[in-house]
């Protein structure tokens, strides 16, 4: 079991060779800190002040900086975090909230939505990869009943009766 993960954050993320499982409550409840947690004992987060187990600073994760000199939240360098989920980047992740990769929501590219983005993969906006026609074809193929017809067999030439050629 990874000791860093138990303390609240493992810098190795998914590359860590040790197990990342939550056996106890590892992070302080951000709602409890503000006096707003309604789950009480059923909450999956800690309800105690523990500076080693504080949640991440929302401002730092969003902007890369925090202007509050007395901020009690954890400031983690975004570069050291886990990599982005390739499925989520294409538009859909089958693992959903259980995915071990980062799900970053990006604003959709207006040019791409109109039909073409000149910046391609270098564009800072999101380019969803939804091939609607392929999805429709796959759905039709799956729904269409397959009819089996017996093949017609041609009679073999060996079974024909040979007739003399008349001159």
Automatic annotation (TrEMBL):
Residues 1-22, 23-50, 51-78, 79-106, 108-130 form the C3H1-type domain. This is mRNA 3'-end-processing protein. One of its GO terms (cellular component) is nucleus. It is found in: Nucleus. GO terms for molecular function: RNA binding; zinc ion binding. GO terms for biological process: mRNA 3'-end processing. It holds the Pfam family zf_CCCH_4. It comes from Caulochytrium protostelioides. Keywords: Metal-binding, mRNA processing, Nucleus, Repeat, RNA-binding, Zinc, Zinc-finger.
């Amino acid at each position: 079991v990874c000791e860093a993960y138990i303390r609240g954050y493992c810098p190795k993320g998914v590359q860590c060779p040790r197990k990342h499982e939550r056996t106890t409550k590892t992070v302080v409840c951000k709602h409890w800190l503000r006096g707003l947690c309604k789950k009480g004992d059923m909450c999956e987060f800690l309800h105690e002040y523990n500076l080693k187990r504080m949640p991440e600073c929302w401002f730092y994760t969003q902007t890369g900086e925090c202007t509050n000199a007395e901020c009690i939240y954890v400031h983690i360098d975004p570069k050291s975090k886990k990599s982005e989920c390739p499925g989520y980047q294409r538009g859909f992740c089958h693992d959903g909230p259980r995915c071990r990769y980062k799900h970053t929501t990006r604003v959709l590219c207006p040019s791409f939505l109109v039909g073409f983005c000149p910046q391609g993969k270098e564009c800072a906006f999101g380019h969803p990869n939804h091939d609607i026609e392929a999805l429709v074809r796959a759905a039709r193929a799956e729904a269409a009943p397959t009819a089996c017809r017996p093949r017609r067999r041609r009679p073999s030439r060996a079974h024909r009766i040979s007739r003399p050629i008349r001159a």
